[in-house]
């Protein structure tokens, strides 16, 4: 694909050029690994000024580290000149000790290091494992967090937990080996600490199969086909998408996965920008269990691994139904070799029930419009868990993000349920209590650059002159003026909500155009304020954060969260105390799900949902979906009247 726009993701050719430039200009050793390669996005002003045919400046952003020395570099490579435009050494051995994300090669390294470690093998033999059993043991590398441990301070270390398997087809997570954690130094390629207790805890033995052909499946389901005989209603030009009145560009990074750029809506012939850039920039899965195998678990799947890097190749007719447009995403492996991630992003249309309806019994008029939504999605598998990230655009101007949580629980061996803090799922098999908290980063551009955020609540009024009948209630409005004031928590009882508005414009009702952030009052981080995870995942302590745009402030938990002791990201950004009134804004929204495990989570969890909605509020002059054409699906059939005779 040729580059048509400054925000187009790097092509495989550009990635190869970036790698070659880095290798030759810096004489990189064979042990250099490429943790991240992506487009170095140009300034917003340059993007907004761009017209088709203009020259495009292309730069690559890269994070490189040496698996022998752990020397870590950030580079910006000028692709036209073949020069290094910026080179920064990342001080990974100094506070806050943050490291680049774990790469795939290291996941394999962990398994081989454990298997070669005499102490680790002895620990399994003491639990009754034979050499043959040990060969089948499933080793799960799991990011270690940072609890100030001497042994791994400033080192590129990761933990490994393990599971028994009766054979290669047995689901390992059903048989956790409790109390055995190997701390692996990924640079020295050795076990630097072996934590070993709960020797007498047996691993659960009950088997739970789910793969095709291993269990009987139901036979009473008839075919359901989605047909679009005239094709889809969207058009795609490179990375640009038009669907009905929506316009946007698709982007992708190894860390965030799917990115939506320049999302806007055509309103009566006028294109109106809404969001400049939207992504899920970080997430954390903190565990509430104090057991030796679990207390340190708090995976940041974006910053510590990479949601984009873990994207699935989606399958037509299984993952996605209907007329699908897949985007293949250029990427590189750990060694910098370019490759194409086939079918990484899926885009299609879905019927979504009723958009609007009114039946007028006096006149016999009856009007119904069906709702159609455009779905742009990808799925990331990070170890045992699978996360779907689904952006939905609706015909009434609504924007929605839905995350789908599925996959397999990180389990625990629990011989005695009494006093167990988590949920018992099967005989001797527990699921530690844990949370999944996501952060969406929304770089706003609502009708232009100058935006503000307002907070609103519904308040019942006391009896008195303004409430003589006791029924009165009002909507409050206040502008959030500074970033420190804008760390806010949702409140279902007062219906608290926030709006992103453009205070420089007014609609014909006299109000500033805006979009309402519909947040669910989902649980926030439950760990204690001074705990390790709270320092690292401070973004998860509030539903809302608002900062003025700054190019370097990209991630809610900071640039290098892997092994970091924390304090980076949002809590640091807002210390600057900047104004957020009538300026270029980034809205950061944390939302999620707290998971108390249950038998229905076995062996693969039914999808759980978390997300948020942005709804136009004073943005349009009327229901923007009022002009959707009436229609009847000629393929629908009915079997007579609803009522028995
Ligand atoms: Ni969960």
Write up this protein.
This protein is mainly β and about 650 residues long. It has 3 domains: about 10-90, Nuclear Transport Factor 2, Chain: A, CATH 3.10.450; about 105-195, Nuclear Transport Factor 2, Chain: A (Roll), CATH 3.10.450; about 235-450 and about 480-490 and about 520-615, Copper amine oxidase, catalytic domain (Beta-galactosidase, Chain A, domain 5). It contains 8 helices and 32 strands. The strands form 6 sheets. The protein has a 10-stranded antiparallel β-sheet. It is globular, with a radius of gyration of 26 Å. It starts with 11 loop residues before the first helix and ends in a 28-residue tail after the last strand. The model has no long low-confidence stretch (mean pLDDT about 95). The structure holds nickel (II) ion.
